[in-house]
Amino acid sequence: MSDAELVERARQGDAAAFGHLVERHRSSVYRAALAALRSPAEAEDAAQDAFLLAYQRLGSFRGEASFKTWLISIAWRQALTRRRRLMVAVRRFWPQEDAAEPAAREASPEGTLLDSERTAAVGRLVRALPPRLREPLMLFATGDHTYEDMAQILGIPSGTLKGRVAEARRWLIRRMAGMGLGNE
Hints:
The structure is a single chain. This protein has nine helices and no strands. The chain has helices at about 5-10, 15-35, 40-55, 65-95, 100-105, 110-130, 130-140, 145-155, 160-180. The longest helix has 27 residues, at about 65-95. The chain folds into two domains: about 1-100, Rna Polymerase Sigma Factor, Chain: A (Orthogonal Bundle); about 110-184, Winged helix-like DNA-binding domain superfamily/Winged helix DNA-binding domain (Arc Repressor Mutant, subunit A, Orthogonal Bundle). With about 180 residues, the chain is an all-alpha fold.
């Protein structure tokens, strides 16, 4: 059964039809939330929130985009809202120097330490990107979506999205090279 048929049945009160949509798109919704949040537990919560909100707003789905794209755009916005709330809480309770990832502070063999430092540095660089570049790059990094789908999720033209992803990648490559983190 197609998404459109399941949506129509769900609109008529068939909860099982919406359940099929959830099962069909669960992994894509989760991966989009994980790209925004980088925490499996938070991503799972954001995905659940997105499914609940989608069910509540099913009547507003107009079919201009695919159901999957509409659903992932809800999940993406839910994840970004959750991320903002989490960042406010982190800043409120911990000074910046204490907010580092615990794994980056643990003693480990030299190779693991270098890898964790590199990962932490790249993470800081990605977080330093302006949101107009960071969000397209993070969504692109999931590997789940076409440019057209990502453009609809973010509400920007496809060409603009492609340009922003390319700009973000160039920015990161320049900064990584400046830090000695380029390809070896």
